[in-house]
Amino acid sequence: MSVSRPPRLAEALLRRLLPSDAHGRTIVGDLHEEHRELVARHGSLRADLWYWRETLVTGVGYARPGRSTLHHLGHDVRHALRSMVREPGFAAAAVLTLALGIGAGTAIFSVVDGVLLRPLPFDEPDRLVRVWATNEETGQAQRDLLYQDVEALRSGAPSLASVMGLSTVTSTLMGWAMEDPEDVLLARTTPGFFSTFRVDPVVGRAYNAGDASAGGVILISSGLWRGRFGADPDVVGTMVHLGTAGYQIIGVLPEGLEYPRDADMWTPLRPEQMGDDDREVVVVGRVADGVDPSVVNAEVNAVGARLASALPETHDGWGAWIQPLQITVVRDVRAALFALLGAVGLLLAIACVNTANLLLARAARRRHEVAVRTALGASRVRVVSRYMTESVILALAGGAAGILVGRWILASMLAVAPQIPRLDTVALDLRVVAVMGVVTGVAGVLFGVGPALHAASAPPESTLRDSGRATTLSGRRITLQSGLVATEIAMSTVLAVLAVLLFSTFRDAVSFDRGFEHDQLVAMNVEPLHPPADGDEARAYFGAIVENVRALPGVRDVALSSHEILEQRGLSLGVAVEGNPVVGDEPRPATVRIVSGGFFRTTGIPLLRGRSFAADGGPEDEMDVVVNRRFVDLLVDPAQDAIGLGVELSWARGRIVGVVGDVSPALGEPARPIVYLPFQRETVPGMWVTVRAVGEAAPLVPGIREAVHDVDRWVPLQRVDLLGESVESSVAPQRFNMLLVVSFAALALVLAAVGIYGVTALSVATRRSEIGIRRALGASDPLVAAEIVKRVAQLTGVGLAIGILVSSLGGRLLGSVVVGVEPTDPGVLVVVTALLGAVALLAAGIPVARAIGIEPTEALRAE
Amino acid sequence: MSGTDLLGEFERLVLLAVLQNRDEGYAILVRREIERATRRTVSRGALYRTLDRLETKGLVSWTLEDESPERGGNPRKRFSVTPDGVAALRRSHAVLSELSAGLEHLLEPTS
């Protein structure tokens, strides 16, 4: 019969936990015997599991005999606190390191949890999908749809239980007597909105297909209900104005179940709005129960293909596909947040390694004390428990401080954070604290157990014999510590490289050229309550406003335009360009903007070729038109000069007199082809007054308002846009990410510096007498310093090499997640290497100075 | 130790179980005996600690048997109750009897 043995590791652990005398050995023997019997009865797997359990229960249980151990524990805690007071630098370094790592982790984890991981608040949110239009020719993958597509999807994709489409517009909400104007975001939806999101109003009712044709009904958000109507339950039936149109409030949507989240009001889409040919309709569907998403995608693809062949004018080249709504809601921040989470994970790992290193270093300093205690009869359990108590107390302090730091970081993040979707659901909740508690506990045990077992296993005789004339550290420990520091440097390198890469990506998104000079520019929407009767009246009305505003001090230039300059929407019309072989006589869609002559000068949109409009708008039968570069690229035959070509609009003719630059609202978003028509010839009822200031634009706003009211005292002037601020807030997410990434990298560098300092200082301290002897024998300061620096340089070199290797892989991975990250370029590596090298030398500086300061006589006398 | 100290409940169980094993008992057998009688699981750590304590009080003594291969080369302790231990049990028993007198109708198991 083969001899059955208990698991060796468990047995070894049991022997460690129990006293090594006859008594302890009889307990080990008892368990051995019972294990044998269990193997015979139940097989070795069950017996081994039993043995492991008993090892932990008996080993720990036996070592915890009530009062005396509590007494020991109290003693250990007091000892730990005393030694923290005795070495405040060490305690502060360990607690601070952990607090920073855990704090940053808590904050970012809270954001990721709230924004990405928590499901959307709707019923069965995983069945909600967003439908996108895609165009392979132009490379657009995520465009919105046309209104008629919603109906096509409802009939053509039966696996979608319901489908809805919506588009949003900014509008001015006023009371029935046109009082208390405020800007609101209005969502115009198809009736499928309520069945798709499974939302019922908390007050009043939803609208249906009947309301859609009648119009004039509106639902409001809970926020608006509370803020404007004091949560009045009788709000249903209240009449309000949106701009000049009257609406009746029929209900209130529940808190948190708004879609889109920032919308204030919802109204049925009226059929006449369906003809709009802008791809601006957000389409969301609910997948029917038991249907696989891939089936839905196939159906949606098929609908897209059918539309493309049935309606080539609007759908040629376009297809359709679906994506889970959860992903699309946060699509802009998803990649960045995951990248940040990775960065913060690295930071936490660095903090843990750093703490382990500090504890190891201290264990080395303490080995004499431990040896004395062991020689005087302290059991292994007592030695180990004393170490563990200390490290657990440090970890707990670090964890507690970390959660405080995390709360602070999170609060400051939320204070400066831009409009990240779902950010309002972010909180430092119990789950996050629980996760961090586990991290802290594990960290405490891990940091403690290594040094503790190490200390307990050292034979006291040899330590005591050596310690009187100890000159160098044991090889094993210095290898372990150097390994840890090299690891730390490697991780810091990775973090720094990734930070530089992310930083440059975000910077590109922040500082790209938008095609106009946005600073010192303010635009104000002037939408008269009584629109001018005809073009002449409009020109007189707006002309008077322009003259009034121009007369204000601090105004450099004023111009009019039918749309705000960054506005993406616009009247899209078929435009035929003379002699264009690409499309022949077929009109191609271009966006039409009506602007006054000084518009390009005022906004700083560069005139690339030709001229702006003539003062009268050009010849009577052929008005002057200006087009943008994108228009030329798409609609003009490359062999021809755009200037002088005739363009045919559905109602008028024009001739191109100038080409201006493109305006691009976001990095990577293609500009639209735009044709600018002279305000002298074409007018719309409401215009934007764009003003360039001599200095700051914001102080001019009250004056401009007054100047407009001098012409028309009733016109509501709610929509005022400081373009510098708009641009700034549109890139705020990127700016915010830049700030975070740089902060993390800086923290990592600080932690790496602490690690290098710790190891170098320890090695100098333990080699004090050796250095003293060498100096007594004539070693010069530079020689002593050079030797220490060489060691630091070696460690840094190894860490850097590993770090660069890993980050070149990481950079590639990152490139697949975050658009725009270039594979590691040598410049980045040079910067990071120089940075870490400088940090390493700086960290080694103090210990080197200390080594040079060692007086040979003193060092030898201390022996 | 003071002769008037009373035994704890678990101490009394351990002493009785050692006696039941007639000086042959070692920890495994003692534990099984108690588990059989009480129909409850006995914590191994608690048993070893109690045996330690009884030994310190002089109520049990033990002999160390030679190391054997089926015990992984570890020795075995066989416990026996000392005269002091028997005396302590008697005292404890007497106190119980005195306190139970006249309560038999409550304490005897009903059939």
Show the helix and strand layout.
The complex is a heterodimer of chains A (863) and B (111).
Chain A: H1 8-17, H2 22-42, H3 44-62, H4 66-86, H5 88-117, E1 128-135, E2 140-143, H6 147-156, E3 160-175, E4 182-189, H7 193-197, E5 203-204, H8 209-214, E6 217-220, H9 222-229, E7 239-242, E8 245-252, E9 265-268, E10 282-287, H10 293-310, H11 312-315, E11 318-324, H12 325-329, H13 331-375, H14 380-416, H15 430-457, H16 460-467, H17 475-511, E12 521-526, H18 535-550, E13 555-561, E14 571-577, E15 588-595, H19 599-603, E16 607-610, E17 623-628, H20 629-635, E18 646-648, E19 653-660, E20 674-678, E21 687-693, H21 701-711, E22 720-722, H22 723-730, H23 732-766, H24 768-776, H25 781-817, H26 826-852, H27 856-861
Parallel strand pairs in A: 4-9, 6-8, 15-20, 17-19
Antiparallel strand pairs in A: 1-2, 1-10, 1-11, 3-4, 3-7, 3-10, 5-8, 6-9, 7-8, 12-21, 12-22, 13-21, 14-15, 14-18, 16-19, 17-20, 18-19
Helix pairs in contact in A: 1-3, 2-3, 4-5, 4-14, 5-13, 5-14, 5-15, 5-23, 6-10, 13-15, 13-16, 13-17, 13-23, 14-15, 17-23, 17-25, 17-26, 18-21, 23-26, 25-26
Chain B: H1 9-20, H2 27-38, H3 44-57, E1 60-68, E2 74-81, H4 83-100, H5 104-107
Antiparallel strand pairs in B: 1-2
Helix pairs in contact in B: 1-2, 1-3
